[in-house]
From TrEMBL, chains A, B, C, D:
Function: Catalyzes the phosphorylation of D-fructose 6-phosphate to fructose 1,6-bisphosphate by ATP, the first committing step of glycolysis.
NCBIfam families in alphabetical order: PFKA_ATP (TIGR02482), PRK03202.1 (NF002872)
Cofactor: Mg(2+)
Methyltransferase as UniProt keyword: no
Quaternary assembly: Homotetramer.
Protein name from the UniProt record: ATP-dependent 6-phosphofructokinase
Keywords linked to the UniProt accession: Allosteric enzyme, ATP-binding, Cytoplasm, Glycolysis, Kinase, Magnesium, Metal-binding, Nucleotide-binding, Transferase
Length: 304, 304, 304, 304
């Protein structure tokens, strides 16, 4: 996120704009929590996880009154365009502001990679690297008696983190919301691997599918093997961003400023087929985020 | 562990010994799973987590018959001294072998740091660094609504991991087996911190005290705040060892060979007051492992 | 690389093929250094840097005799198709074998990202993450007297590593072979940043442009400021691969097997516009690798 | 450093003290750059590299006038005791202030581990872990033609970083200021290792002994082998501190406050034989920092 903020500020200043930062999202917008951001104010943040502008949920912004207040704040500060970094919910909020006359451009930032219309979101690459580094450590302790490791990762509606991390780490089974799963088959795979002499097996579970603890219990019950559970939780949200994420965020942040300068509004910056582009929010939301099921099949083949 | 194996082999060869590796611990000893280890066989392993000799539990070794078989294996291979790398259980096994005439020396290797008689065990420093790196990532995502993070770490009987990691990461509360805890007080601290404007709080729980998931539920119930749980699990057992662990393992492995050459037996290598030394198993086991409670108090003071 | 080897083996076995590994590249091919690779032989390698098949240069393979010997080895082992993982040189070797009747498919593996015809090569993402983690550490030590840090990175003919890492890390100046540079301008930028209160500046130099040590000397001479030099060297070639690289390698390795099964030859697997595809070696070599100069300009804008 | 600052502030506030931070060391002290530090001001810094108080050199403080100005600042702010975090030079400055009536306590913070009187300094453990992680990456790229890697690390007068990192990483040769070295012997070792089938060799050079680039050149000249050089530079000064360093800094910072409260002055906090204690500056400076040469010999034995 910080890399995107830095890009918006510096690209904006480069083009002679005055840039302000809204602290704590729509919550801060309603309260007038805006401050000018200079070139120097975004120095030395590109490598920091999290966001220098903080985040907060806002129930009030979901109401008409809240939205009016936000617009009022923006008008009072003479804001001529708003860049919103976030996910689905943030963009739906942005559409509300556009309806009320504020030009908005969205930058997709969420670790779940679940925003339709863009191949990647900012934060996803960092999250999957965090997950695989955790699993790599589990791989190191191959002991003959502790065979099965269940790792629960984020992903309420989207299995992207589980799928990418699972493919990247050779997980034996990957449970994602987008594909039906059958614990019998998972157990079958475990037993087959065990027969072939595999020293350990890793099962990746997206939180939207099941709780890691429960999956662990069930496998233990069915196999009689010791099963160890790891729940990664909010570790996946933090950490210094990867190079891919910093570059993506820098390019997307700069593209958002370009869109604003071109007079575009109600659009989201996206990366599609390795090209940065802008697409209308409405077009994005017409689609559903789709994960690449061929990668899911590949993961199954490679973890025979 | 690998660094200790490497040290034993190379120090041994340096002194003209022939060194063999026992694969899969006492289980392998019973089955005769021994192989000569040359200088080259322990090359390029110092930076690898886990152990090149694998580990396994052995129920059979707990019986007299099992121990006899192990001794037989050792005699058949002409083994004149055995270095055992492991924890309490492994050392008690070693004592049984000594009773049967096999000189043994122990090297304390366990991430829990729970072996009496030594200030540090091999693997502990790596484990706490894994834990703090995980918590550092959680720190990055300070959001105003998700205030409380519960992290469950290893430590069934010893709170060393929780205490060191908690002190190193400024955890608001640390729950360890060695100190009574009171959830009311934990909640009190949380509320106090919240009032002072703390953006987030971290509670570290040693698995021997309570389940992280349960502590999380309970705090949510008492505060009404969102509480996020991370269960680190076997991540803590793996990973490339830290410099401290590699140096400690190298020194301890070499010291074990020295003890064997000096004709010592039934001893454990230890580090005490920053000095490597040998102490009789029996002396070690007479003590109880004690964690430094002044550090626990300090952690409380520094996380006001 | 290991992830690609694993993918080739497991995808091949999945389709009923017998897969052999050639150790030490063309050098090993000439010497007949081939071994069958089973499913298990590529277990637990996906997270390891380097390659389990080792690499070696071969002067002999550049001769007709060498190539004949390699073909003879392949025929003797009944090899019906060869997957070559490597860079330009390896692919030119593959073309020689194809001329002699051996079907070949290339998988682009080089940290420099300098292979024409593919947007990314295996290893590049890992290398740039290594570089930015190094630079992040330098960023932490902002002292008022040690202002300028010069970091030399790999890239003899291609500036991709310097450009991506520089954009990802907010380097003040990036010297790459693809763009003319002017030390006067670099110094100008340093002085401007200094006036604006910047605490430190980072200059990234691709080795193909100049030696980091010399650039450091020159800047010290022209500014009178202390200048610190880091030469990352072969650190950039190693390390556990990133998620992106493991997934790319898995997909490319599997695609190579698909191409072989489809009867294709003299082709290279590539990723273009986020799609995995096969392109003839000749088509690839007709082009020149081009780095995205718009990213270079963006880096300049964002590091004002 | 930040962990030590946090400990001084929070331990101080816990005991009812008012704590101020001096920005930019003696330079800031002369200029009156002091600010009160509250509990919250040191929140969320324990995991950050560098120091939130910045550092600067001060030529002026070396003069009597400068020292007088510093004392004046302290008196004006009613400062009753000063904690100085730093190295030799900083402590000699502290002694000057004590002569002028300001009670001072030192906390040893320098990555070089070269302060006499303490077994470890804050920052050393982080630095050696940075070094070994770099070397681990080099280890991964074992190629048959690029045999010798020279890594230059910090250490102008003290070889602690080179020695610990070299022992931890199995370096074939370690060149430190405390031991004479003979390039012939280094080359002899290389050739012996090569004969034994070693795939690569690592030579660690402390900057105080020689330049890595020159050592690399010389080895290339004498062996005819390709030699690759890495100069780690200021990477070693940064990075998120290790658990050991954070715990050491927390304990030392707290101990400094205890010493102040006990009315001690002109003392340095030290860790000796794993115990935190206070020793007079003068006693510390009477000794010379000594590195453990038995570890140097051990490194030689283990890297046969």
């Amino acid at each position: 996120m910080n890399a995107a903020i830095r890009a918006v500020v510096r690209k904006g200043v480069y083009h002679g704009l005055e840039v302000m930062g809204v602290y704590r999202g729509y919550h801060g917008l309603i309260r007038g929590d805006l401050k000018p951001l200079s070139l120097g104010s975004v120095g030395d943040i590109i490598h920091r996880g999290g966001t220098m502008l903080y985040t907060a949920r806002s129930e009030e912004f979901k109401t008409e009154e809240g939205q009016e207040k936000a617009v009022k704040t923006l008008r009072e500060h003479g804001v001529e365009g708003l860049v919103v970094i976030g996910g689905d919910g943030s963009f739906r909020g942005a559409m509300k502001l556009t309806e009320r006359g504020i030009p908005t451009v969205g930058v997709p930032g969420t670790i779940d990679n679940d925003i339709p219309g863009t191949d990647f979101t900012i934060g996803f690459d960092t999250a999957i690297n965090t997950v695989i580094q955790a699993i790599d450590k589990i791989r190191d302790t191959a002991t003959s008696h502790e065979r099965t490791y269940v790792v629960e990762v984020m992903g309420r509606d989207a299995g992207d983190i589980a799928l990418w991390a699972g493919l990247a780490d050779g997980a034996e089974s990957i449970l994602i919301p987008e594909a039906p799963y059958d614990l019998d088959e998972v157990v079958e795979r475990l037993k087959r691997g065990n027969k072939r002499g595999k020293k350990h097996s890793i099962i990746l579970v997206a939180e939207g599918v099941a709780s890691g603890v429960e999956v662990g219990e069930e496998i233990r019950r069915r196999t009689g093997w010791e099963t160890r559970v790891t729940v990664l939780g909010h570790i996946q949200r933090g950490g210094s961003p990867t190079a891919f994420d910093r570059v993506l965020a820098s390019r997307m942040g700069a593209a958002a400023v370009d869109l604003i300068l071109e007079g575009k509004s109600n659009q989201m910056v996206a990366i599609r087929n390795n090209q940065i582009c802008g697409i209308p929010f409405e077009e994005a939301f017409k689609q559903k985020h789709r994960l690449d099921l061929s990668m899911y099949q590949l993961a199954g083949i490679l973890a025979i």
